[in-house]
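Appendix B. Chain record.
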Amino acid sequence: MNLQHADVRRILELLDTAEHLDSLDLRIGDVVLQARKPGAAPLSAPPVELPAAPPATAAPAVRTPPPAPVSAATAPVAVSSPATSEVPDRMIAIRAPMPGTFFRTPAPDQPPFVEEGHQVEASATLCLVEVMKMFNSVAAPAAGRIHSILAEHGQAVEHNQILMIVDPAEAEGAA
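Structure tokens predicted for this chain:
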């Protein structure tokens, strides 16, 4: 059984929408998939192994870790950052379509797709989010000017994290 990109995306969507599931570790043949929601405790047990060709009636095994004890020293601290701030009414937030690594350039030796202040056309590629060696383009939903870039090149981003803010009111030729 081969695990396809669409399968991984669907598994990540299920994890993202599951209320009582913080992490998921699967092994399907030679492929190991380990996914965690932000703040989830690391799993100490090895990934659950699935048979290479599970019977049609078998459901995949999923382990959820017990909640980790939280002390004042290890408690997460809420930090206000531009990535979590509200977007002004007239502007459009460009969000990460999935958790992964944010890239501003198409290749290490290439210039960034866009810079703050650049004008962009609708559907223009703004950046890439890499997941499991698959690079996913993030396109501009509308023409406008790049107001701000909030994510750092090469850094991990979370699903739905604001990567950039586009001001459609400042598109060239806007009245």
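Further analysis of this model is presented in Appendix C.
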